[in-house]
Amino acid sequence: xxxxxxxxxxxxxxxxxxxxxxxxxxxxxxxxxxxxxxxxxxxxxxxxxxxxxxxxxxxxxxxxxxxxxxxxxxxxxxxxxxxxxxxxxxxxxxxxxxxxxxxxxxxxxxxxxxxxxxxxxxxxxxxxxxxxxxxxxxxxxxxxxxxxxxxxxxxxxxxxxxxxxxxxxxxxxxxxxxxxxxxxxxxxxxxxxxxxxxxxxxxxxxxxxxxxxxxxxxxxxxxxxxxxxxxxxxxxxxxxxxxxxxxxxxxxxxxxxxxxxxxxxxxxxxxxxxxxxx
Length: 278
Ligand SMILES: NC(=O)c1ccc[n+]([C@@H]2O[C@H](COP(=O)([O-])OP(=O)(O)OC[C@H]3O[C@@H](n4cnc5c(N)ncnc54)[C@H](OP(=O)(O)O)[C@@H]3O)[C@@H](O)[C@H]2O)c1
Hints:
Blueprint: E1 5-9, H1 14-25, E2 29-34, E3 39-40, H2 49-53, E4 56-61, H3 69-80, E5 84-90, H4 100-113, E6 118-124, H5 137-142, E7 144-147, H6 159-171, E8 179-183, H7 191-202, E9 207-210, H8 213-222, H9 227-241, H10 251-256, H11 263-272
Parallel strand pairs: 1-2, 1-4, 2-3, 4-5, 5-6, 6-8, 7-9
């Protein structure tokens, strides 16, 4: 094991926990950090950041949920001797205008891309695993997924591929410097087609219904969501309907030298694990 330490932010989340496990298996020294991790890290408590950054050479960054703090974090990382940053971002970050999504993602990208450190940005499309976790598992298990999404397809990506790409990039200094990888699955499906595949694999009648963004927001608030977060998620669908991120890309193959996993592969695994059982 080398003495280099890789900091993984969002370490309890979808990507962070998968990436940390992969890096540890490769023999990398990992510092896993988030508000509830053993190494506490909070985007809104910068007084704790220097301690988290001590001795770190490479950092995986899950962006903050508001524009701004990433700039200060990157400056502190550079001062602490960090040499490389790998940022998770979203597909179409350049095309999302002044939406909350666009502002958050571009602010974090600007901070990383404007730094003097070696950087790589991973722009991911929507994860397959949104369907077997929050926010879609529960409505699917109840028999109907209602979303403000029409016929515009989405090239859903398997989180295992996002994690494989991130762990590879984090482990290969120099090779991915200044690159923005657009990461997608191998083909685009409409949300209705995705639900149809889930229904067939699960052997359960599950329907897809298109609703308006306002109806979707109201449903989420009725389920106890904070209104701003509910509007934020509904807004994402409105942006996707504009067709900014429909095309599959070769980002996974460029980094890994193999094709991305299919949506069907995810559906089979999740159905076998009982993800949508009632
Ligand atoms: N879902 C998708 O399909 C998709 C697709 C592309 C990009 N993205 C982007 O992916 C990012 C989320 O990444 P993810 O899915 O890996 O994580 P996630 O599963 O959403 O979990 C969020 C992580 O961030 C930590 N966190 C939350 N608030 C924090 C704070 N104030 N300070 C420090 N850490 C905090 C959480 O841990 P603690 O609670 O312990 O702090 C957790 O580890 C978002 O920027 C999203 O836009 C998502």
